[in-house]
Amino acid sequence: MKAITILTTVLAICLNAYCDARLSQARKMIDNNQPEGAIKLLNSILQEKPSDPYILYDIAVAEYTAKNYDEAEKIWQELAAATELPKKLQGKVWMQIGNVSFRKGEPYEQSAPEQALPMYEQSLEAYRVALATYPRDSLTKHNLKVVEEKLARLHTVLAQKLLNDINKKSSLKEQIEKLGAALDHQRTAKELAPKNEEYSRNVENTEKQLSSALTQRATQEEQRADSTMNNPSAQRWEREQAIKNLENALTDYREASNLNQQNQEAKKGEERVLEKLSTLLTREAMQLHEQAKQEATRDPNYAISTYEQALDKYDEALQLNENNEPAQTSREQARQELENLLMKQGDKLASEGRKQKEQNPAEAAEKMMNAMNNYENALALNPDNTEAPPKISAIEKELPPLLMALGEREQQRAAQEEPKSLDKAVAHLEKAATSYDMVQQIDEQNKLAQERAEQVRNDLMRLREKLNQMAAQQKAQQEQKQQYTRDFNTLLGWAKNDDKQKEYEAKRNPTTKYTPQWDRIFKNW
Predict the structure, then answer these.
(1) By the 8 A CB rule, do 123 and 148 touch?
(2) Does 390 fall in a domain?
(3) Whole-number Cα distances in Å, 513 to 140, 169, 173, 249, 524
(4) pTM score of the predicted model
(5) 242, 228 in Cβ contact below 8 A?
(6) Separation of alpha carbons 291 and 410, rounded Å
(7) pLDDT per residue as tens digits for the range 39-88
(8) What is the CATH number of the domain that holds 88?
């Protein structure tokens, strides 16, 4: 394998002959393996041309040649962060970051591969950025290929270490965590070297092992739920726990099937769990259904909420098993009962609102809107409901003057709250805006509603602008307190688009699946 190559050509350009002569002398020192002298000479030139990016670049080359990798990396990263770096330097700087990152990882490749891994990953990303600037650079392409092969081998080594750690004394949980971490390493190796048949076989073998372990854990979770399934008087918390057990089992069975299509035990287990889970969800829905019926007279609002929860549970049960007849029958009963309750509650609120129209129009508006909301929900449950549409139409005719009164009240409350709480004032104005908008939806020619709505929008813009200013001030204060630290991830975020950066950071975050010792890292990708 050809080694990583570094570009050592001095790039600084000066106009006077003396500067050119010194640069030529520095180049010869680097070529003759005398980097210390080159560093001194280049630093003296830098004093005459402070912050010159070409001279800084050359100093980093000399530091690199002297094996002062940290110093070279620091200079190149600072150049990469420069906002006005000449374009022809950009690709070279990123290539050198790739070079120095690789060199820093080399000493750990054999003795501590988990420490070499993040450095090689940084090298890989830097080369990719360099190629985005100069896609045809053959040297960078070569170095990228070398790092990809090195990384693939490192991931393979780390995967094997994890697999070797699995023994008869390992718990099932520990086995699954180590197999999962090993599989991540092996898949990454396969992505980096897709033509390597050994890497493909490694992935296939570990997938089968993990599939078997997941099937075993799923079976245990299913068995824990069976004790509740067989207990008709089980408490609600027991059913909820059993549902969680079955959901965990279902997840494991499905993952096991995806990992190994030949795993028939996992496929059969998935079918069993779907049916059991549907049955348990139906029992849960029936209990909620019964609670709703009992509360319908005493606390209709609570009953409506409980009916809705019951319907959701019935729907979940039917999604898992569409042939669940108890769920189908009970769901239809719950739907009819909820529809009737919504209509009844709507009638009650509408009646109360009409009685308050003269004395308290704003309060009446709220009750009438709640009544209409109940009618609309009933109609959503049953589009064939013939009673709801005329009642909705009747309320819409009565609402405009009541909504105007509600809007005025909310404006007044907003004015009262503004000196104390901008957030509360905004909430009142939003309610006022909704009221005026509803008036216009019902009566498009209502000029007063249009004027009030415009006034409210202006007030909202004014208050929101104040809130934005306050938020900006708070953010500025927080930023002043925080010390800014520039690292490789920050530089990479500037150089790459957001999606690519998020993908890189996701890969770079260390796993939390298996960290038995803080000083050992089994997976850094």
Answers:
(1) no
(2) no
(3) 35, 18, 10, 19, 11
(4) 0.70
(5) yes
(6) 37
(7) 999 999 999 888 889 999 999 999 999 999 999 999 999 999 886 888 88
(8) 1.25.40.10
